[in-house]
Amino acid sequence: MTSIDTVGTRPAIQTAQAAPRPVINSDFETFLKMLTTQLKNQDPLNPIESTDFAVQLATFSSVEQQVMTNDLLSGLSGQMGQMGMAQLASWVGMEARAPMPAQFDGFPVRVYPTVSPTADAARIVIRNAQGTVVESLPLSLTQDMFEWTGRDAAGQSFAPGLYSFEVENYIDGGLTGATTAEVYHRIEEARLEAGRTVLVMEGGASIDAEQVKALRN
């Protein structure tokens, strides 16, 4: 809300509320008030040394510069995050390949396992969204793509939902490690969370954008 006053023949515009002062300016005024109060209440027989004032002023100046630096870094970080979001906007609607669960809707799911080069045997373990193992199948050491039909030994289809695929590596019959297999999944949304860009996939799974290994339409 504004009001117009006339001084002579020149109009002047006054705002109903003054613009907020920067935090640094406000803190500097507080510092000056504290310094004035300190001068008024000092002991006349034992006045404060001028060097003490210089130290206080230098300390305040250092803090002021640090606050300004932190604000600048925060601003740059936010701009970089927004730039990343702008670039990733074109990813929405595409299929990303990454180590993550896959949505099963009754159709076969293509899985891209990575077997350890030191393993002499491997298995792929499929778990449902509750973490229950629904299948554990042998995997060829050179197999770079595995198609999961989503059906059990009796030919019955598993329930629709998210399923994870884990590759277990063995040496002389002993389990040496396990890794999450990669799948392709459609990107539905890109979010910025705590400075990280997170991709939300079809079915609800979410991954860090840095985990994406490939993209396709």
TrEMBL record:
A Pfam entry, by short name: FlgD
Cell membrane in keyword set: no
Coiled-coil intervals: none
UniProtKB keywords: Bacterial flagellum biogenesis, Cell projection, Cilium, Flagellum
Record domain FlgD/Vpr Ig-like: where: 106-169
Signal peptide limits: none
Cytoplasm in keyword set: no
InterPro entries: FlgD, FlgD/Vpr_Ig-like
Gene3D superfamilies listed in its UniProt record: 2.60.40.4070
Family listed: Belongs to the FlgD family.
Functional note: Required for flagellar hook formation. May act as a scaffolding protein.
This protein's name: Basal-body rod modification protein FlgD
